[in-house]
Design a protein that fits this description.
CATH topology of the largest domain: Farnesyl Diphosphate Synthase
Number of helices: 28
Domain Terpene synthase N-terminal: 62-196
Shape: globular
Domain Terpene synthase metal-binding: 269-506
CATH superfamily of the largest domain: Farnesyl Diphosphate Synthase
Largest sheet: 2 strands, antiparallel
GO molecular function: magnesium ion binding; terpene synthase activity
Bound molecules: 2-acetamido-2-deoxy-beta-D-glucopyranose
Order of helices and strands: EEHHHHHHHHHHHHHHHHHHHHHHHHHHHH
Structural class: mainly alpha
Transmembrane segments: 37-57
Number of strands: 2
Strand order of the largest sheet: 1-2
Cofactor: Mg(2+)
Length: 573
């Protein structure tokens, strides 16, 4: 690139580089017009980015210094011998505000003491503290038994004490905590049904809570929403709130840069134009990826995962809509054998898909040392090939009008939903050093991949059955179950919801302490976040194929609109 020369836009000088970005974003606008969000608005919201780059750097320094001070203040608050109940609430807020990685040490110190003495003192503080404690311990991977709720149950520990029904706040916490259940935990089951029967008058206040329990919400989205709620909470810590806002805006600006990057990749690739039917949903795809890994240090991971996601969506459309069965068989075989000579036989649009796939596969492994890279690439190719094989099976089922049994359907469908490919790539992208054993293990579809994929698929089916039917996709788990058992649609949906719940409980146990030393906490979080994203995206219909108003709003608040921070200005003076 040439050295920056002055250009003029609206009478104000800007540098070449920045102008390039604007042009780029205008082009990007066409890509994302389906959801009416223009990246360009980013620049309108924050004009200083364009015109006062130096001021921005200065501002960044000020914010970083401020954040350091605020962190120290919050640290003191955690350590300052405050009441146990207060300490737990503070940690809960830190976590919900998306700041737990900043206070990792403090949080683990407090929680390990609690888990060592089985939360004895916490139980004395009441239901709310006990429930928060339980939720936090499970969430951070400490051992804790459902028995800590015994004191709140009748003599046989069958039912919760009726007197607790007045304790709304405690019940809300209990409700959230009950979603951390392991399979077969009876007390947790009765906790959930007890907490669900909350008195009618407060129903709307908890409408949001009962919508999706805390444990099933996408953490970064929760952080954004909770910042607004926390501000209004009694006894909130202004330092913590201020820190959360600074942190959110900082991470958001990092995500924005990555999104621009992803936009230029997609434009260069030109797949969207070649395959005109493809869902140009880069923004949603990136949003999805942020839901899986939002931590600012993992930009490379997000960049590559976005590519992976876009390829999945595009090639999925090739199989669903565009390709003839012969073409699809050929394509599947060529990928399966990685038969480079065979490519000439493919139609043009499939050649482009192949080449994009090849680039992405190599790009994903690029950060590894040569030996590891050579080791990893065949595995990555294999998971893609496995994905396409299930796409092909479904395409054939569809062509034949065949409705499989639920079991047969799920054996393919929990792979064709692509969680396997996403998490396999995530594993490689989060690691500097891979191990062959773990790659092998991941390839064999272990629970840590299977369960979130299953949830992903079932949530998807619950939400998209009618839309997908219209588009001509294969039948979903709902139709399969109805045909197999003669159940009504309502019964089938209930059954599928139950399968989702069971999978969540299995997943909770899977993730509990020490069970998976070979996987990093980040990877485990990513895997559970995949299930959370599925719950979120499909909660109000199919968020990916037909993003609802609500989801568009979420994308805006997460990726486009920064949080105005009055406190900033005060501190700047
Ligand atoms: C449970 O969820 C509700 C609604 O989001 C929230 O107000 C409450 O603080 C949560 N409690 C716990 C323990 O997470
Ligand atoms: C796949 O990508 C690698 C690395 O970029 C390249 O060397 C190779 O030629 C590509 N293969 C095909 C068939 O395009
Ligand atoms: C998908 O279904 C086909 C046909 O029922 C079956 O042969 C195949 O094993 C299934 N694939 C997977 C990955 O289970």
């Amino acid at each position: 690139m040439k050295s920056p020369t002055k250009h003029s836009l609206g009478g104000l000088p800007i540098t070449n580089r920045v102008r390039g970005t604007i042009l780029h974003c205008t082009r990007y606008q066409t890509l994302s017009k389906s959801i009416n969000l223009s990246l360009f608005s980013l620049f309108l919201i924050s004009p200083p980015i364009i015109f006062f780059t130096r001021n921005i750097i200065l501002q960044e320094e000020v914010n970083n210094r401020l954040a350091e001070e605020l962190m120290q203040e919050v640290r003191n608050q955690i350590n300052d011998g405050i009441k146990l109940q207060r300490q737990l609430e503070l940690i809960e807020s830190i976590d919900r505000l998306g700041l737990s990685s900043l206070f990792h040490e403090e949080i683990y110190r407090v929680l390990s003491v609690l888990s060592l003495n089985n939360c004895k003192e916490v139980i004395l503080c009441g239901l709310r503290s006990t429930a928060i404690c339980f939720q936090l311990l499970r969430r951070f991977g400490f051992q804790i038994s459902e028995g800590i709720f015994d004191d709140f149950m009748d003599g046989d520990h069958d039912a919760f004490l009726p007197t607790l029904s007045d304790d709304v706040i405690g019940l809300l916490s209990l409700y959230n905590a009950s979603y951390m259940a392991f399979p077969g935990e009876k007390k947790m089951e009765s906790a959930r049904s007890f907490a669900e029967i909350l008195p009618g008058s407060i129903e709307s206040a908890i409408g949001h809570a009962l919508d999706l329990p805390l444990h099933r919400r996408m953490p970064w989205m929760e952080a954004r929403m909770y910042i607004d709620m926390y501000e209004l909470e009694d006894g909130m810590s202004p330092a913590l709130l201020h820190l959360a806002k600074i942190h959110f805006n900082k991470v958001q600006s990092i995500h924005q840069k990555e999104l621009k990057h992803a936009g230029s990749w997609w434009t260069r690739l030109d797949l969207g134009k070649t395959i005109s039917f493809s869902r140009d949903r880069l923004m949603e795809c990136f949003f999805y990826v942020v839901g899986i890994v939002h931590h600012p240090d993992y930009g490379f991971c997000r960049e590559k995962l976005t590519q992976v996601g876009m390829l999945i969506a595009t090639i999925d459309d090739v199989y669903d809509v565009y390709g003839s069965l012969e073409e699809l068989e050929l394509f599947t075989q060529i990928i399966d054998r990685w038969d480079i000579k065979g490519i000439v036989e493919l139609p043009y649009y499939m050649k482009i898909c192949f080449s994009a796939l090849n680039d992405t596969i190599n790009g994903v492994a690029n950060h590894l040392y040569l030996d590891d890279r050579l080791e990893a690439i065949p595995y990555i190719k294999r998971v893609w090939a496995d994905l396409f094989k299930t796409f092909l099976v479904e395409a054939k089922w569809h062509k034949k009008g065949y409705i499989p049994t639920l079991k047969e359907y799920l054996s393919n469908a929990s792979i064709s939903i692509s969680g396997h490919v996403i998490l396999f790539n995530t594993y490689i992208l989060l690691k500097c050093k891979i191990s062959k054993e773990t790659l092998q293990q991941l390839q064999d579809f272990p629970n840590i991949v299977r369960l979130p994929s299953l949830i992903f698929r079932l949530c998807n089916d619950l939400a998209t059955s009618s839309a997908e039917q219209e588009r001509g996709d294969v039948s979903t788990s709902i139709q399969c179950y109805m045909k197999e058992t003669g159940a009504s649609e309502e019964e089938a949906r209930l059954y599928i919801s139950m399968l989702i719940n069971d999978a969540w409980n299995d997943m909770n146990r899977e993730y509990s302490a020490c069970s998976k030393p070979q996987f990093s906490q980040r990877f485990i979080d990513a895997s559970i976040n995949l299930a959370r994203m599925a719950s979120f995206m499909y909660q109000h219909g199919d968020g990916f194929s037909a993003p609802s108003h609500q989801i568009k709003g979420s994308i805006k608040s997460l990726l486009l609109n920064s949080i105005s921070n009055n406190l900033y200005e005060r501190d700047m003076q």
